[in-house]
Known about the structure:
The chain is built from 15 helices and 18 strands. It is of the alpha/beta class. The chain has three domains: 26-163, Rossmann fold (3-Layer(aba) Sandwich), CATH 3.40.50; 184-310, Hect, E3 ligase catalytic domain fold, CATH 3.90.1750.20; 379-444 and 453-542, no CATH class. The strands form six sheets. The chain has a five-stranded mixed beta sheet with strand order 2-1-3-4-5, with helices on both faces. Strands 12-16-17-18 form a four-stranded mixed beta sheet. The longest helix has 45 residues, at 456-500. The radius of gyration is 37 Å and the shape is elongated. It starts with 28 loop residues before the first strand and ends with a strand.
Amino acid sequence: xxxxxxxxxxxxxxxxxxxxxxxxxxxxxxxxxxxxxxxxxxxxxxxxxxxxxxxxxxxxxxxxxxxxxxxxxxxxxxxxxxxxxxxxxxxxxxxxxxxxxxxxxxxxxxxxxxxxxxxxxxxxxxxxxxxxxxxxxxxxxxxxxxxxxxxxxxxxxxxxxxxxxxxxxxxxxxxxxxxxxxxxxxxxxxxxxxxxxxxxxxxxxxxxxxxxxxxxxxxxxxxxxxxxxxxxxxxxxxxxxxxxxxxxxxxxxxxxxxxxxxxxxxxxxxxxxxxxxxxxxxxxxxxxxxxxxxxxxxxxxxxxxxxxxxxxxxxxxxxxxxxxxxxxxxxxxxxxxxxxxxxxxxxxxxxxxxxxxxxxxxxxxxxxxxxxxxxxxxxxxxxxxxxxxxxxxxxxxxxxxxxxxxxxxxxxxxxxxxxxxxxxxxxxxxxxxxxxxxxxxxxxxxxxxxxxxxxxxxxxxxxxxxxxxxxxxxxxxxxxxxxxxxxxxxxxxxxxxxxxxxxxxxxxxxxxxxxxxxxxxxxxxxxxxxxxxxxxxxxxxx
Length: 542
């Protein structure tokens, strides 16, 4: 019979290799420092230089540390890592295994965005990189560190959000007071004067005036840009090349007529920093009149805005069965957007005919050109004949008796008067002042003892009346501006037409743009010319 045995379990000691301590070399820790200042102001830049010196001395004073670099972002926000070049450079070095530890003054210096802060703490921890936050005395690789980092990160983000809210409030109060700011660096025509207000730069103002006059003369954005480049005029940013978007921006900017719109855009939040166009609902929007000296007079500016709207309103349309989209603005030929088919309404296109080795320029209905007589029977018109007929029509208007000439003037001026209103501007403004005074009086009389007696219904009624009056005032002001602009345009037209009484002018693209609204080809031998303002005249084709 086998003897009883007892199972025994023993813990084997770990195998320890003999080590000659005298030859052991302690591994040096590769240390990088990160510092950041949030603005480029002189005091904080001085602080930045101090931080660089401090970390250089600190790392070099530790015998087991090796400095691999100091990474510093100047004037960069801590709410996002996208534009922090030095920060991202440090992270790339860590991913290549070149850093063991990062020293940073505080969590808020590392990141003010909690999500970013935790993201990079975890990424670096997986890479075996420790982050030491000096102010908080926290090592990111220590147990429980993430909890504290999250708390401090939330506090840092909250500080940024509060700061952003304070800045937004400050800007709102500044806008309410009508304080206008200029970005002089990339704004052509103005500079900051000795007293801090905008003043006109004469030579740059001439460039602005040239841009406006060329646009009213029919030039496209690209055409104006080319002209400026040929004259060696530098763009607002100092480049030899002009962009169409820059020309468009100058033509639309109300600051050139001495006014300013405040709060055109706004930043949604301090974390994403997404910029949105302000529709006046999300944020208050203000218009300040006569805030600074004007380069462009109000009438010229208004005419440019009308021309901008006219060109934009020329939406592309496509006739059934045609290949080409129509109605795109052309700065080269005035007739491209004015000459239409009297039968189907489709615009005409300028074409080159070649016959027996000879070339001839003609204008043809696009509908007939692309689809044939099945869709339209409009005739093709030789360009020279067309030009001669149009100039003869203009000349005949100018040379006819004064009665017809004055009829044309009256006809074009019709419907340009300011619409009748029950109250004039002075009366409206006076009533608005009365309402404002009544409102202030009601507020002054309110106290904790009589707040229940506050007449809220009366207040609402006053506010509704005030809003209605403001709308009336805006309508009258806009109509008055349009009337002045239209009258100015009309006078320009009649100045040119009157000049034709003395001498016959050659066909001119600018003249056609300013005088004519439309030319309809009604038959092989006749066209119908519609002047700006509605006056019509039939003209025979020779």
